[in-house]
Amino acid sequence: MVDPKLLRDIMFFSDLSDKEVAIVAPIVNTKQFKTGETVFKESQDGQSLYILKKGEVKACKIAPDGELFTLTIMKDGDIFWEMSFLDGRPRSATIVAISDIETYVIEKSDFETLVDGNPRIIFKLLKNIVFTIHSIVRGMNSRYIEMINYMWGRRR
């Protein structure tokens, strides 16, 4: 369990009242990783949501030659592996710590224990997850258009 006061500094929990943060705090755990350590690998099962409290990680895909290709870098306050958390599918990328990191972790099974008795809290947290997914999709769309323009030399 994490001290509720520490969660107040994290954007993911900013919509919650003090009372709501106190309800969520018991299902939040901490986990640390050293620079260069793999948090998890692509295709691994996992139903945990990670919130980066401190440090930086890179999300990577494994190229056919076995090298890691960096997709994005995440920093303090970012959440990751929200999709596996929601849909239960294997991880879609590898996460590697590029500095010493501290994360908050919420397990899906623990999250689900809050659903019936705290629908407003769940709504607020899911809204933040959806916002993160939306930001990722918008960024991918922008990069796709840039790539098309570069490849075909045209603007739309």
Write the SSE topology.
Layout: H1 4-7, H2 18-24, E1 28-33, E2 38-40, E3 48-54, E4 57-62, E5 68-74, E6 79-80, H3 82-87, E7 94-97, E8 101-107, H4 108-115, H5 119-152
Antiparallel strand pairs: 1-8, 2-7, 3-6, 3-8, 4-5, 4-7
The total domain count is: 1
Rg on CA atoms, Å: 17 Å
Tally of individual helices: 5
Largest sheet: 4 strands, antiparallel
For the record, the CATH class is Mainly Beta
Silhouette: globular
Percent range for β-strand residues: 25-35%
Unreliable parts: none
Query: What's the CATH topology name?
Result: Jelly Rolls
Task: Give me the side-by-side strand order of the main sheet.
Answer: 1-8-3-6
Supply database-style keywords:
single chain; 156 residues; alpha+beta; Jelly Rolls; four-stranded antiparallel sheet; 8 strands; 38% helix
